[in-house]
Write a structure and sequence with these properties.
Layout (H helix, E strand, L loop, with lengths): L9 H9 L1 H9 L8 H16 L9 H14 L2 H6 L8 H13 L1 H4 L9 E10 L2 E12 L5 E7 L11 H4 L1 H14 L3 E8 L4 E6 L2 H24 L14 H4 L10
Parallel strand pairs: 3-4
Antiparallel strand pairs: 1-2, 2-3, 4-5
Helix pairs in contact: 1-2, 1-10, 3-4, 3-6, 9-10
Amino acid sequence: MYTPPDYLSPSSIGLFRDCPQKFKLSYLDKIKEPPAWHLYLGSFVHEVLEYLYKEDAQNRTPETLKAIAADRWTNHEWATKVEALEEKPGTLLDFKRAAFESMSNLWALEDPLETELDGMEHEVLATVEGVAMKGYIDRFIFTDDGSVVISDYKTGKIPNPRFKSEDDKFFQLLAYALMLEASDQESTSRLELLYLTQKEKHDLTVTPVKLNIARGVIVETRENIETSCATGEFHCNVTNLCNWCHYKKIDICPAHKGK
C-alpha cells in the first residue's frame, strides 16, 4: 500500500519508534511539520559554532563568536525566519539571548583554542546490515590511535532517564558509528553529547555490545516499516507527548481526529 523510503536516517528511525503514525504522516504522506522555535534555535546555534571552528585556533574567542553570530543573523535572514514562525514563545530578543547563551556555554565544556575538529556536518551514506542509511554527523575527531570520537551539540533539555535510556539517548550517534564503520571502515571509540544549555557533557564508550544493540534497532525498525507499508497499518502511540504534536493540532491524527 505504501513504498518504504529508499533510505533511513537515525532521526527517521527514532520517529517511527516513537510513533509509527507520525512517521507515516511525515515521511510517506509528506505532511511536514512547520518550523518550530526550538528547531530554529538549534539550527542557528549549530550554524554559528560550525563557523567558529572553521576559524584558525587563535581566533576562536568569545569576541569572534559574537561577530559570527551577528553576521549569520543579519545576512542569512534569521530574524525573518523567526518572525514567520506560527508559534513564538518569546520575542526576537528572547531567541537571540537563548541562542547566544547556549553558544557561550561551549567554553564551559571545552576550550575552542585547544579543540581541533577533523570533520563537521559530514554526510554519511552507508548500508548497515542491508539497511540503506543516510545522515549528517555534527562533528568528529580522530584520536591518536586512529579511532573516531563523534560528538553532537544539544540545545534542548537533558532527557529524563525514567523515559529515555542511555542506549536511546545515544542511539543516533551509535548509528553514525555503525555507518562510519560500514562506509569508511572507521572505528568509533567514544560518543559525546554536548548539552549547551545545561553546560554538561555526556560521554559513552563504544563497545561491541552497544553497537549490536543499535544494529538490532536499525534492522528491526526497517522490517517493521516494511510490514506497515505492506499492510497500511501504522499504529498511533498515544502518550502525553501527543499534546505537543502538530498532527493532533491540525486534526489529522486518527487517534485524536474529531475529538
